[in-house]
Amino acid sequence: MHELKAKKIPSDKTEDLLRRQEAARRPAAAEKEKAQRARGKLLARDRIDALLDQDSFEETDLLVETRSEAFEDGRKPPPGDGVVAGFGRINGRPVCVYSQDFTVMGGSLGLAHAEKICKVMDLAIKALCPVIGICDSGGARIQEGVEALGGYAEIFERNVRASGVIPQISAILGPCAGGAVYSPALTDFVFMVEGTSHMFITGPDVVKQATGEEPEFETLGGAKLHSEKSGVCHFTAGSEHDCFRQIRELLEYLPQSARDVPKAPIPTDSPRRESALLDAIAASDPRKPYSIREVVREIADGRQFFETQAAFAKNIVVGFARLNGQVIGIVANNSEHLSGALDIDASEKAGRFVRFCDAFNIPLLTLVDVPGYWPGLDQESRGIIRRGAKLLYAYCEATVPRITVILKKAYGGAYDVMNSKHIRGDLSFAWPSAEIAVMGPAAAVEILRRRELKAAADPQKLRAKLTDEYVRNFASPFHAASRGYVDEVIEARLTRPRLIRAFQFLKNKRATAVARKHGNMPL
Ligand code: HXC
Hints:
This protein is an alpha/beta fold. The protein has helices at 12-25, 30-38, 44-51, 111-127, 145-162, 182-186, 204-211, 217-221, 223-228, 240-251, 276-283, 292-299, 344-359, 377-381, 384-397, 412-417, 441-448, 450-455, 459-473, 478-483, 495-505, and strands spanning 58-60, 83-90, 93-100, 131-137, 168-177, 189-193, 198-200, 235-237, 306-308, 316-323, 326-333, 364-370, 402-411, 427-430, 435-437, 488-489. The mean pLDDT is 95. The chain is elongated. The chain has two domains: 36-251, 2-enoyl-CoA Hydratase, Chain A, domain 1 (Alpha-Beta Complex), CATH 3.90.226.10; 276-434 and 486-508, 2-enoyl-CoA Hydratase, Chain A, domain 1 (Alpha-Beta Complex), CATH 3.90.226.10. It has 21 helices and 16 strands. The N and C termini lie far apart (56 Å). The site of hexanoyl-coenzyme A (HXC) has 16 residues, from helix 5 and strand 5.
C-alpha cells in the first residue's frame, strides 16, 4: 500500500515545535551517550525501539519539564525530565512503556519524571494493556528531595492498583537502588541483564558504613544473585537485545489484561500424540531422578516450555506451555533437586506463579512427584510453616481450571498441597507408578514395625519384606482411586491427549470466590 503524505506547509510555529522536539529527543551531551554505550548499554529511546514493533512507538510528555526550583539555571534537567514514555505495540498488541534515561542526571527520578511514569501506568490500566518499565536510574533525584520520594510512592501505589488487572513487567538495565527497587518488586516479572543490571536497597558504600562489609556491585545486587538466591529476578539475559526478545516471547503467553484470555494460535502439534518416553519414565526406579522438563516437553505443543525463575528454587519448576493451542501454567516438582521436596523458596516461587495464573485466567497443570516437605532446623527456623503455607493458600484460592497428574510420589502434606482434589482441584489423574501415602515405604516401616524389626533374627530380610508389603498396600494410586481422590489412573503415554481433552472440557469452568474484602494470606 502506498502511504499518502500530506504536503508540508512551512510555518514558524511548526518549525518551533520540530526544534523543541529535536532538542528533547537528544537531551544529553554526546560524551554521556558515549559513556552509556561504552558500558554495553543502549540509549533509552533505542531500547524502546528494540522492544516494540517497528515504528509503533507513540510518545507522550516529550516536552514535560520539571517544576522544581531546586536547580540552578544551567543544572536544570532538560525537557523530558530523564524518562521516555508512551505506548506502542508488541507482536501487534498494544502495550504501554517507559524507559529511564541514564544520560540525564543518571536517570534519577524527580517529580515530573514520576508523573510521566504514572501517566502511562494510568493509561495502561484504562486501556487494559501490559505495562513495561525499563529501569536505569540512580534512584530518587537528590535535589528534589521529598517530591522525588513522593513520586516513587505514587508509582508504587499504581503498581499495586494495576496488580492482577494488567501484566506488569520490569526490565532492569542498569542500577536500581534504594526504595526504587520496590516498583519492580511489585510487578509480575523482573528481567535483568548479566553484568550491567544491579538492584539493591542500599548500595556498597552504605553497606560498608553500616556493617563493615565490602561487597562488589555484582555480589550485592547482580543478575546472578537475584535469579539464583533471592528470587527477585525471573529472567536473566546475556544482552539487552536478548532481554527484549525474551519479553516479547513472554507476552505471547499472557493475556492483555485480567478481562482477557491469552491468544490461542491454531495448533500445529497433534492432540493425539502419545509418548513412549513417559511410559519409560513411569517404569523407571522411583529413587532415580529424571528430567521433569523433559516430561513437560513431551506433553506440551511443539515440545515448547517457557520457564520462569529457572535458576531459583530448582526443586520446583514453573512456566508456561500450550496444550492444543491453549496457554496453561505448569507447576512441577523436580526430582533432580532436593528430590523434589517442597521448601520455603519452592513454596513462595510456586505460590506466586499460581496466583499470577489465577489472576490472568491461565489454567493450571500440576505435575506431582514430591516426597514431602524438606526437613530440618534451617527450614523450621526460617518459617517453613508460615511461608510454606503460601502455596497452599494460593492453590485453595485459585478458581481457574486446575488439573493434577501424580507421576510418582505424593507423600504427606505435600500431597494435599500440590493441587489435590481436597482443595478443589478439578480433575486429578495418576500414573500407575504413583505412590500416594502418608510417607515413603522405608520411613513408614521403620515407625510402624520398629519392635518387630528390633526382635528379628535377620532385620534386613524382614525390612525388605515389610517394605515390599507396604508398597503393595499403600504406595500405589489404587487406594486413592478407590476413594475417588484420583479421578482416573492413566497410562503415562496418554498424558498429553488426556490432558487436552480435560482442559478442553473445563474451558467454560466458572467458579466464584466467597464475597469478602480480601483474605489474609500468610505473608
Ligand atoms: C541526582 C544523580 C543521582 C541521584 C546519580 N546522579 N544518582 N543525581 N540524584 N540519585 C547523577 C550524578 O550526579 C552524575 O551527574 C550522573 O547522575 C551519573 O552518575 P555517576 O555517579 O557519575 O555514575 P556511575 O559512576 O555510573 O554511578 C551510578 C550510580 C551512582 C551507582 C547510580 O550515581 C549512585 O550511587 N547514585 C546514588 C544511588 C542512590 O543511593 N540513590 C538514592 C537511593 S534512595 P553528573 O552531572 O556528574 O553527570 C532512593 C529512595 C527511593 O532512591 C524512594 C522510594 C521509597
